[in-house]
Amino acid sequence: MNLSTSESLAFNRSVASSVEVSYCDLQTFSVWYRSVHGYLSILVCVFGSIANILNICVLSRREMRSPTNAILTGLAFADLLVMIEYIPFSCHVYFDPDARFTATYFRYGWAVYIAFHAVFTQVCHFISICLTVILAVWRYIIITQPKQNSEWCNDRRTKLIIVLTYLSCPLVCLPLFVSLKITEQVKYVNEEGRIIPQIELENYSEDKTEVTLYVLDYGNFKDISFWVYGVVIKLVPCILLTILSQRIISTLLETKRRRRNLLGTNKINMKTAGSDNIVKVSRQSKEQPADRTTRMLLAVLLLFLITEFPQAILGLLSVSIGTQFENQCYRPLGKETFYFMHVKNRSGLKNPTKETDFCLLAS
To answer: Domain range for residue 180?
Structure first.
């Protein structure tokens, strides 16, 4: 019996959906990395908190106040919130691997905290991303519009944008909060409070107690939250920073070319003016502090893109391909590995001289 074209396509889709496709084989890596992630994350969070506190103390001093430093202070404060909040989460989830097999691990209070952690870290992270984009925009204006930048990037406008960023980012992340829900699961525990696996219940003859476990899961808006996470929070800032970085690099190269041509002309005109003038011209030919500052900013933006862009791609592929890709690729990487990269990127440890860089960026 021949099937019509539409029936054939429907049949092929049903067969394809029932076949288990292997996209990634990362379970072994995920199990190994999970065993060390807790200790690494605590180490990074402690030193990162100290680094961000020092950033705030240095950049908020009266003699250091400027629009650029105001953005860096807001950035350091958002990063500090991520560091401090992640410490109790990491202690609860990673320091006692056997605890997840007990009923106390799935108490309602901890489920609420995990939901708060999931939303709070994304809000603070998105604030940090937005301030990074604003910092790049400010730097682009400074190097391309040296006469108007004091008016366009003044203190009042900078502080207003920082406040609006802190107020608007939670609203953008609202779908992430709506997509989460706490579900109840009825399980049995033994006398020691350990959860009895479902396959052992039929032959289990010892005393057991019925308990209710509270587990955080996705609700009806899972796809929307993934689109917001993958596109709005990750992909769009990466695209903006890529464009800004390209513009800044082009402007730097053009400025360097003009300076080289100008200094070459000056040297020719001053050959007969004496050695003192030649020394002055050679000093001017050295790299300007503003160029070094912009190049360090570009290094920070590049590290940001390396950290964030893969997460955006994985998030989009999880929505486009489906649950199998999410479970095989996104969760083994995104749950611990990318989160550690994110925490490290926000901790100030991505550059051992970040304290110096921040002070130079302010110049």
So the answer is: 26-264+292-334
Q: Tokens for 47?
A: 């030193």
Give the DSSP per-residue string, 347-359. HTTTSTTHHHHHH
Find the CATH number of the domain harbouring 225: 1.20.1070.10
Domain tally, the chain: 1
Q: Tokens at residue 146, please? A: 């040296």
Region 341-356 average pLDDT: 46
Residue 360 covered by a domain: no
Which residues are CB-neighbours of 193 under 8 A, at least 6 positions away? 102, 103, 104
Is 45 within the bounds of a domain? yes
- Give me the sign of the Cα torsion angle 251, 132, 308, 126: negative
- Top mean pLDDT of 13-17, 132-136, 322-326 is at 132-136
Nearest Cα to Cα of residue 299 among 250, 351, 336, 235: 351
233: in domain: yes
DSSP 314-355: HHHHHHHH-HHHIIIIIHHIIIIIHHHHHHHHHHTTTSTTHH
Q: Which stretches of 107-235 are DSSP H helices?
A: 108-144, 149-152, 155-172, 174-178, 222-227
Total Cβ atoms within 10 A of residue 185: 12
Q: Residue 358 — very low, low, confident or very high, per pLDDT cuts 50/70/90? A: very low
360 phi and psi angles, rounded to 5 deg: -70, -35
Q: What percent of the chain has pLDDT over 70?
A: 75
**For 56-68, what is each residue's pLDDT tens digit?**
999 888 888 888 8
**145-158: average pLDDT:** 81
Strand partners, 212: 186
* Positions of E strands within 142-294: 180-189, 209-218
Q: What is the pTM of this model?
A: 0.74
pLDDT attached to residue 171: 92
Answer yes or no: is 51 within a domain. yes
